[in-house]
Amino acid sequence: MLTGPTGSGKTDVALALAREFPVEIVSVDSAQVYRGMDIGSAKPSREIRAQVRHHLIDLVEPYESYSAGQFVRDCIEAIEDIERRGRMPLLVGGTMLYLRALIGGIAELPEGSPEVRASLDAEAASLGWPALHARLVTLDPVAAARIHPNDAQRIQRALEVHSVEGRPISELQAKTAPALRRDFRIVALLPADRARLHAALEKRFDGMMEAGLLEEVRGLYQRGDLTDAHPAIRAVGYRQLWAHLAGSYSLDTAVERAVAATRQLAKRQMTWLRSMSIIRSFDPYEAQCFVGVREALTGSLQPL
Questions:
Q1: How far is residue 236 CA from its own chain's centroid?
Q2: DSSP run (H or E) holding 296
Q3: CA 283-7-21 angle, 5° bins
Q4: CATH number 3.40.630.10 given to 2-106+177-298
Q5: Number of C-beta neighbours around residue 63 at 10 A
Q6: Domain 114-172 - what CATH class?
Q7: How far apart are the C-alpha atoms of 61 and 66, rounded to whole Å?
Q8: Sign of CA dihedral 241, 244, 245, 250
Q9: Does residue 300 surpass a pLDDT of 70?
Q10: Do 297 and 17 contact (CB within 8 A), yes or no?
Q11: Mean pLDDT score of the chain, rounded to an integer?
């Protein structure tokens, strides 16, 4: 498994490994599962996917929900398929929710309820998500303590589970078991030079804009079946450009906020990765990074 913060170079390292070893890549990215969200999710091009087989990309439409539980099921299926064919699965991505679910297990939660979600969205539009967070404090103080008052997606899910199941989500989450009983080799690309990473993230977003990210988001905006409440549209970059198209602020402000949100995401990812003792880390800006990653992930595996 190869992980790391956004923009740390995971894709380039994975493709370099695939040129040497019988590797197929399993995406661990919550934005790449959505069709039509290519530029902003840094989705590998069709040319690259023709050279190296990728899994868990373009699975659902942006209006559809895709949970960590569904990821775990799809990931296990992909791993087993790859191994049956004598190939090596390489999990690549930085969605920490997915990594935690795969490594540590995931609670058996009820399926989503479109009716309950619609009701909660309507209440949030009127009262604001902090007000719904205050309700969650009374229903499930354990979950509320872990969720920011403006984290709409997690507040909604916690209230939805309580409404559907009649029990706190924290109670259900406490009953977890690893979904895949095996030892993972986990390597993280962790840049020591944060300023260099920040510069790279800004440059990468500028490149996305030049490649047509605004037009990609505009196409989603004009479809008519999506709102900023959909998880797909909450993805970093998409959320800020969507707000610009909705008239909330200028394009320059949207770009500034998207770059800032990307930096914040990278910071959260690195904080979590550094807390995991089972992860070996390498600095992507060090000359010998690839050699270390290759040895840590492939060991005695024979090259192609």
A1: 10
A2: helix 289-298
A3: 65
A4: no
A5: 15
A6: mainly alpha
A7: 9
A8: negative
A9: no
A10: yes
A11: 92
Whether pLDDT at 126 is above 60: yes
Among 193, 179, 185, 160, smallest CA distance to 284 is for 193
DSSP secondary structure string for all residues of 161-188: HHHHHSS-HHHHHTS---SS-S---EEE
Domain ranges of the chain: 2-106+177-298, 114-172
Residues paired with residue 90 on neighbouring β-strands, in sequence order: 25
Sign of dihedral through CA atoms 276, 99, 280, 204? negative
- Structure confidence at residue 100 (pLDDT): 86
Q: What is the pLDDT of residues 185-209, one digit of tens each?
A: 999 999 999 999 999 999 999 999 9
Task: Give CA–CA dist 10/136, Å, rounded.
Answer: 37
Residue 117: closest CA among 146, 152, 168: 152
Does 303 have pLDDT greater than 70? no
Residues 203-221 as b/e (b if ≥16 CB within 10 A, e otherwise) read eebeebbeeebbebbeebb
